[in-house]
């Protein structure tokens, strides 16, 4: 009996026949098996066992190069012709070339966005046409990305060789908006560059794909239902929650969290942004920890995310930001009485892997959140029971707040390119390569991603429970009814101890790709390959010191990643350091997104209460002139500041 799929393995039914059970006088076992067969429905679809695999001629479709997290395009691109079939056939071919044995068990799940079900039906047919024996699909086809990673690692002892995830993450959904597909490998990690490069090569040489003619699978069928697509290929409807919940319970003390949630003066507000994370938040925060259902906002998945942008930042999570007593800039709104505000606020993105953290009148930047979690690892059982993290990492554009803590706590840390797959190698150093064991491991990105080695993806809900655990630890000696230690107290104490890394990001979305590349070439030619001396001084007192192009050699497998972002280092008039990073995003679906990351360090605690965008305004103005941003791109303002 498989508790995750709520069914017996297929071989169980054929291994025990009626004569054997009669001879062994096991009528009770027979009765049990028959009862299970009535609740675990096996449906032979109309094509059923007689389904014939068809090999359909096709030709390459240009532009199928995955970015940092899969292939994302406008949904109309995916809907056209055999776009889905071409991509999935190429993916299967690469997976079969990479795996020994070839693909046998695959999870297929999505974040519920527009076109999710239609694309999933096509994927099922291509997988069946390629002889994949077990296709596991969550009920209703919806599963958060962290939950998929957990299921790959845990379901039937990690039987699945990979997962196909239908998501464009934090990008909008609906007609005219974005759709995407990514692949997670056998340890639950996003496919490595070697895999995605090979996938792209396959898409450029594909000549046919395999499929079957079968009726649609009923994704709303009860957990444990099976659908026989061909003689050798079966779809099983799986429980989307169980493996993920197990992984979280291994990380946190749910009994203590349940008790903390009962405190009269504690409350939490979680915004699911109508993404896949909403049902998981309800299962964990409400059903398991006991918070009231009023703790949830927008927790029901919608194909168009309620016509919103499911990116948990100050701009797109504006309702939550306002309810936490914050202005759009992320500072306390003086007109709001904080007494009625929840102690902890959080938001998820479209596929449930990102997070926003806030307290009463305070916004915690993702970089600060990561550093504070590392400094408070004793509050998190996943780390505490093993003597603390053995490694930590941040993406290069994230602030150096993590570095300061890691050095002080004597924890090895790494700075990687953007993309969770780079963290995956570090987390799996021992497991996959028999090298140094860095687990338990903490990692994160400035783009609202935080996670640990419990899975191989960032995990928004994990970050919420980490902060709830930190609050619980900080208040363990506070009597019932006394004022709680708040998120703001924890953040300001952290800044007083380590200094504040003021940080924000300017996103310029939908820039003409040629102009975006022209900007990068200008910076590279004049300051990276040229000299900082060519930058004229002005009366701001902010002086360019040097410029580099970030590259990375993986300490685990020796692989190299080049051209990962342009870094301009400055000195402020105060003598403190500052830096600005320019990078073209790999997560968009049309045009180019230029991301400009601003960071400056401030030790003086009397200046720590400034809003980051205001504190960084002079640095932003200076660098935009240095790189001739408006002159080259024609853009005089960012689309979003986070």
Topology:
Blueprint: H1 10-15, H2 18-23, H3 27-39, E1 42-44, E2 53-57, E3 71-74, H4 75-79, H5 83-98, E4 105-110, H6 116-129, E5 134-138, H7 145-154, E6 162-166, E7 178-184, H8 193-203, E8 208-212, E9 226-230, E10 233-238, H9 242-251, H10 254-261, E11 268-271, H11 277-288, E12 296-297, H12 318-323, E13 344-348, E14 355-359, E15 362-364, H13 366-375, H14 381-384, E16 391-395, H15 401-408, E17 413-416, H16 420-427, H17 429-433, E18 441-445, E19 449-452, H18 460-474, H19 487-498, E20 500-511, H20 513-528, E21 543-549, E22 552-553, E23 560-561, E24 566-571, E25 577-584, E26 592-602, H21 612-615, H22 617-626, H23 629-633, E27 640-641
**Nearest-angstrom radius of gyration?**
25 Å
* Beta-strand percent range: 15-25%
Average pLDDT number: 91
The number of E-state strands comes to 27
> How do the strands of the widest beta sheet line up side by side?
1-9-10-5-4-6-7-3
How would you sum up the major sheet? 8 strands, mixed
Span between termini: 48 Å
Count helical runs.
23
Query: Which structural class do the helices and strands define?
Result: alpha/beta
Low-pLDDT sequence parts: 8-40
Helix content: 25-40%
The general outline is globular
């Amino acid at each position: 009996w498989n508790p995750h799929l709520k069914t017996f393995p297929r071989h169980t039914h054929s291994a025990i026949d009626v004569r054997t059970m009669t001879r062994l006088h096991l009528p009770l076992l027979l009765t049990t098996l028959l009862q299970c067969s009535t609740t675990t429905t096996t449906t032979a679809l109309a094509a059923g066992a007689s389904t014939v695999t068809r090999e359909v001629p096709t030709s390459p479709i240009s532009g199928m190069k995955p970015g940092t997290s899969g292939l994302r395009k406008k949904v109309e691109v995916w809907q056209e012709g055999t776009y889905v079939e071409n991509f999935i056939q190429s993916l299967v071919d690469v997976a079969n070339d990479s795996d020994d044995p070839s693909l046998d068990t695959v999870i297929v799940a999505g974040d519920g966005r527009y076109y999710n079900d239609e694309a999933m039906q096509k994927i099922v047919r291509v997988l069946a046409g390629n002889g994949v024996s077990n296709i596991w699909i969550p009920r209703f086809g919806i599963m958060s990305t962290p939950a998929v990673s957990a299921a790959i690692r845990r379901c039937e002892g990690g039987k699945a060789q990979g997962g196909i995830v239908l998501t464009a993450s934090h990008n909008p959904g609906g007609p005219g908006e974005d759709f995407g597909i990514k692949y997670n490998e056998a340890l639950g990690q996003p496919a490595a560059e070697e895999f995605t490069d090979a996938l792209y090569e396959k898409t450029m040489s594909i000549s046919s794909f395999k499929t079957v003619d079968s009726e649609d699978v009923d994704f709303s069928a009860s957990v444990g239902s099976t659908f026989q697509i061909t003689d050798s290929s079966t779809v099983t409807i799986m429980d989307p929650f169980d493996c993920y919940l197990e992984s979280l319970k291994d990380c946190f003390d749910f009994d203590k969290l349940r008790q903390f949630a009962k405190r009269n003066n504690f409350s939490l507000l979680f915004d699911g942004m109508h993404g896949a994370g909403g049902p998981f938040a309800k299962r964990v925060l409400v059903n398991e920890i006991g918070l009231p259902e009023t703790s949830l906002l927008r927790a029901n998945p919608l194909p168009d995310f309620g016509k919103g942008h499911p990116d948990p930042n100050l701009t797109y999570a504006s309702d939550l930001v306002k309810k936490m007593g914050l202005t759009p800039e992320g500072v306390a709104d003086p007109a709001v009485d904080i007494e009625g505000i929840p102690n902890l606020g959080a938001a998820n993105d479209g596929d449930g892997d990102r997070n926003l953290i806030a307290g009463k009148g305070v916004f915690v930047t993702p970089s600060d959140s990561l550093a504070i979690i590392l400094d408070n690892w004793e509050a998190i059982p996943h780390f505490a029971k093993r003597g603390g993290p053995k490694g930590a990492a941040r993406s290069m554009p994230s602030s150096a707040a993590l570095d300061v803590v890691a050095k002080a706590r004597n924890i090895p840390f790494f700075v990687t390119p953007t993309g969770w797959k780079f963290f995956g190698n570090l987390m799996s150093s021992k497991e996959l390569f028999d090298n140094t064991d860095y687990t338990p491991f903490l990692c994160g990105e400035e783009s609202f991603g935080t996670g640990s080695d419990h899975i191989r993806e960032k995990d928004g809900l994990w970050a919420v429970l980490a902060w709830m655990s930190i609050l619980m630890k900080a208040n363990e000696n506070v009597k019932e009814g006394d004022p709680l230690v708040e998120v703001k107290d924890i953040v300001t104490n952290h800044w007083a101890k380590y200094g504040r890394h003021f940080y924000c990001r300017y996103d310029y979305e939908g820039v003409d790709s040629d102009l975006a590349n022209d900007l990068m070439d200008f910076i590279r030619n004049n300051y990276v390959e040229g000299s900082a001396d060519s930058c004229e001084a002005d009366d701001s007192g902010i002086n360019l010191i040097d410029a580099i192009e970030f590259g990375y050699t993986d300490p685990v497998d020796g692989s190299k990643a080049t051209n990962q972002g342009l870094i301009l280092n400055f000195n402020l008039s105060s003598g403190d350091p500052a830096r600005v990073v320019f990078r073209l995003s790999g997560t968009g679906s049309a045009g180019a997104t230029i991301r400009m990351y601003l960071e400056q360090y401030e030790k003086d605690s009397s200046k720590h209460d400034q809003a980051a965008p205001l504190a960084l305004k002079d640095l932003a103005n200076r660098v935009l002139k240095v790189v001739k941003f408006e002159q080259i791109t024609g853009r005089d303002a960012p689309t979003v500041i986070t």
